[in-house]
Amino acid sequence: MRTWLSVLCLLLAGWLAPWSVARADTPTYTLTFKADGTFEPTRLEVPAGRVKIVLVNKSAEAVEFESLPLRKEKVLGPGVTSFLVLSLSRPGEYPFFNDFHPEAKGTLVVLPK
Hints:
Blueprint: H1 2-24, E1 28-33, E2 39-40, E3 43-47, E4 49-57, E5 63-67, E6 72-76, E7 81-88, E8 92-98, E9 101-111
């Protein structure tokens, strides 16, 4: 029984290893919500493909990243850090805003590969 369990663990590790390496290669960018509800940076340039955007709320109140064209939204409590993983195939500009401070707007710029 132990032999089968060892073989199963080795097979599973061999199968998952390439997947975890591929995830580690995902470009990561940070978008910070400031105390006044605005973003930093307001213009975030990323390459086309799969990207990870780390959202950091440095304010004392809840914030919400929202992008209608990307169909993404994420609420973060005060001081919370989270992330979004996006697969962006089309270059272009995609607006986003803080739904709790709609005047705070930004743009995600997807660059061609």
